[in-house]
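Design a sequence for this backbone.
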């Protein structure tokens, strides 16, 4: 890594249609600063507008931690009272909304510690892949802090109200096996295979029709909201039949060829 990259707290790299976002504070286990939250939101907003992107991977630098959450050392200057906390929360929650609004599939590549705000970020990904020694939790009761509505909602959607409150009430740190059992992670692999599996997952996603991936993500969110679908929502499930990707896909299948989707 170059000296310039070492000074950046969020790295953005790209390999064809796959973009990787790296939380880059390895000396602090990738703990979030206020500026990191702001940068992450800006990155997601920019990537959401780029329809050439097919998958986003989010990870922490190194293999010791995804992120332990917010840097408590920053609290005295950025979250020392309610007005400061409100301003800090506005940045965090805008980033959370940018992640949730992102139309592209998002994969969380989790090494080691994933707690607090790190867990919140992971919960907003569509797929979470971790190592066997990864640990998860939200022991913020020990700091006298609450998890705000916008931060709690993705966890509740992911593992339900009871499991979320279990983590918050008890403050336990759970291992990868228990996290998988409660639905907190999608897949557990050996620690030295996490990066390979995350990138292979991103490659499988990127090889598919990007319009379909974006539609599936939107449909899943609509269904999770539990609201009645409007006629236009139901009709949208048939828009794929008028796409070039559909024609490419079924023709490639019949010809026993690998489809090359254009996203049109």
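Sequence:
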């Amino acid at each position: 890594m170059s000296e310039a990259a070492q000074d950046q707290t969020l790295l953005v790299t790209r390999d064809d249609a796959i973009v990787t976002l790296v939380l880059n504070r390895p000396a602090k286990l990738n703990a979030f600063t206020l500026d990191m939250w702001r940068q992450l939101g800006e990155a997601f907003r920019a990537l959401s507008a780029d329809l050439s992107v097919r998958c986003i991977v989010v990870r922490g630098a190194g293999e010791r931690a995804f992120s332990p959450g917010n840097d408590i050392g920053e609290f005295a200057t950025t979250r020392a009272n309610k007005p400061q906390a409100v301003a800090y929360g506005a940045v965090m929650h805008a980033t959370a909304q940018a992640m949730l609004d992102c139309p592209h599939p998002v994969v969380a590549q989790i090494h080691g510690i994933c707690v607090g705000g790190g867990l919140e970020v992971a919960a907003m990904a569509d797929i979470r892949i971790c190592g066997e020694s990864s640990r998860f939790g939200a022991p913020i009761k020990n700091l006298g802090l609450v998890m705000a509505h916008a931060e709690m909602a993705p966890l509740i959607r992911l593992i339900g109200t009871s499991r979320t409150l279990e983590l918050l009430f008890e403050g336990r740190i759970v291992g990868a096996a228990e996290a998988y059992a409660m639905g907190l992670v999608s897949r557990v692999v050996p620690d030295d295979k996490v990066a390979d599996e995350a990138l292979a997952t991103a490659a499988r996603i990127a090889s598919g029709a990007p319009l379909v991936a974006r539609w599936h993500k939107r449909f899943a969110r609509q269904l999770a909201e539990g609201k009645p679908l409007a006629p236009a929502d139901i009709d949208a499930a048939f828009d794929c039949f008028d796409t070039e990707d559909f024609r490419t896909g079924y023709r490639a299948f019949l010809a026993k060829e690998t489809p090359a989707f254009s996203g049109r």
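Residues 3-206 form a domain with the 2-enoyl-CoA Hydratase; Chain A, domain 1 fold (CATH 3.90.226.10).
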